[in-house]
Write a structure and sequence with these properties.
Layout (H helix, E strand, L loop, with lengths): L6 E6 L4 E6 L6 E4 L2 H21 L23 H13 L4 H42 L8
Antiparallel strand pairs: 1-2, 2-3
Helix pairs in contact: 2-3
């Protein structure tokens, strides 16, 4: 039985593979040559880990419950930063709130885009190396005249 846990798969430069992790079981991970392989691996590994926990009579972690965001938050910052934000917002003729939302959005999605670009780059590298390998193995290219 699959648990309703929080899973993540990411590319690891250090390992040269995709790594799958589970938020509720941080000591459990799985790797694979593809995103799908790592995801299947972490699902199977978590299933096995939960079975072992049950067998040993140990507590099974509850799935992390996501809290619904209200869209409001209180942000504390140094006065000097607040003044700089106020001045930038004033220069752009927008509210401090709008300026901060724009800045946070750019930061969050820039990091997300970097991660997506890394994943796509890894897939392109894999495809390129596969194609090079296939071309090198083509018998008609290895014939000498």
């Amino acid at each position: 039985m699959r648990q309703h846990y929080s899973y993540q798969v990411f590319w690891s430069e250090e390992d040269g593979q995709f790594i799958g992790t589970c938020r509720e079981l941080p000591s459990v991970s799985a790797c694979g040559d593809s995103y799908l392989e790592a995801m299947e691996g972490i699902l199977d590994t978590v299933e096995a880990a939960v079975a072992i926990l049950k067998e040993e009579g140990l507590p099974i972690p509850e799935p992390v419950r996501r809290k619904e965001a209200s869209g409001r938050c209180l942000l504390r910052m140094p006065k000097s930063l607040h003044e700089a934000v106020f001045n930038r917002a004033e220069e752009e003729s927008i509210s401090v709130n709008s300026y901060l939302v724009n800045a946070i959005t750019a930061f969050v999605y820039q990091a997300d885009m970097g991660s997506r670009i890394d994943k796509l780059s890894a897939r392109v590298d894999t495809l390129e190396s596969t194609q090079v390998s296939e071309v090198q193995q083509a018998p008609f290219l290895n014939q000498t005249r």
